[in-house]
Specification:
Metallo-beta-lactamase, Chain A, alpha+beta, seven-stranded mixed beta sheet, 20% helix, 6 helices, 33% strand
Length: 268
């Protein structure tokens, strides 16, 4: 766990791996040429075109606020928090990048007939576009599973819908990066002169840093996802932001840098 912490100004950033597994790169990225994978063995792609997909969350801790970004797939998040010295009661806010099932699983815990919020002292910041699409009954993408993960939280008045530019704290801002889902958002950290971005699923694998036009099969609106990804890559390079990416090999930290006329991912 020693490698899972970075510091951005006054913000501690902890990478928490909820689970990982192997995926077939060609199934996830059907448009990526075979040869493109050969450069990525060090970032999780083997010669058999399998890559390690991490299911990660990020804990952001300032002197005044402790924020968890996403609640994972239902694996090892709780033990990861404990190993980092963080109690469930310490988490004061949950900020979601989007509402796919592998980012919301630990919202609730306990028996099925009496679930309770896993993080009893938290308020839940949800991108409005995803709430409208996945949670509101009658919407095109309504999901009973997603609805059930939020029903109790909504009933208790713990859900706050957020739009592009919303502030979770003076150091944390929501940045809309739609395409993967209608409301997908990144969390931007600015503390002092330092910046970081918690990326979520706007980027799934480092191969997309150099080729933002390459979409995954999970991108709901490929054209919009590609535009958001290009803007994200360009901004991260321009601002020299630290990145934390949910599905990159843990801990998922790195920076976008220029190599000639190409953007590449550099571990950090």
């Amino acid at each position: 766990m020693a490698d899972n912490r970075r510091v951005v100004g006054q913000i501690e950033v902890f990478s928490l791996s909820d689970r990982s597994n192997e995926r077939d790169a060609h199934r996830v990225f059907p448009d990526v040429p075979q040869a493109a994978w050969q450069s990525f063995k060090e970032t999780g792609t083997s010669g058999e075109n399998l890559f390690t997909m991490n299911f990660g969350c990020y804990l952001l801790r300032s002197p005044d606020l402790t924020v968890l970004v996403d609640t994972g797939v239902g694996g090892d998040l709780i033990s990861e928090l404990e190993s980092s010295g963080i109690r469930l009661e310490d988490v004061q806010a949950i900020a979601y990048t989007h509402l796919h099932g592998d980012h919301i699983a630990w919202n609730l815990s306990g028996p099925d007939d009496n679930p309770q919020p896993t993080f009893p002292n938290a308020r839940y910041y949800v991108p409005r576009g995803d709430w409208s699409y996945f949670v509101e009954q009658g919407s095109p993408g309504y999901s009973p599973t997603v609805h059930d993960k939020f029903r109790l939280l909504e009933e208790r008045g713990l859900v706050q819908l957020v739009d592009d530019g919303a502030s979770i704290s003076p150091e944390l801002t929501v940045w809309a990066t739609p395409g993967h889902t209608p409301g997908h958002s990144c969390i931007v950290i600015q503390s002092g002169d330092e910046r970081a971005v918690i990326v979520g699923d706007a980027i799934i694998h480092p191969v997309q840093v150099g080729h933002p036009e390459w979409n995954s099969t999970w991108d709901q609106d490929p054209d919009t996802a590609g535009r958001s990804r290009r803007q994200l890559v360009e901004r991260m390079e321009r601002e020299q932001s630290l990145g934390g990416v949910s599905h990159f090999v843990a801990p998922g930290f790195g920076r976008v840098v220029k190599a000639g006329d190409q953007y590449v991912w550099q571990l950090a």
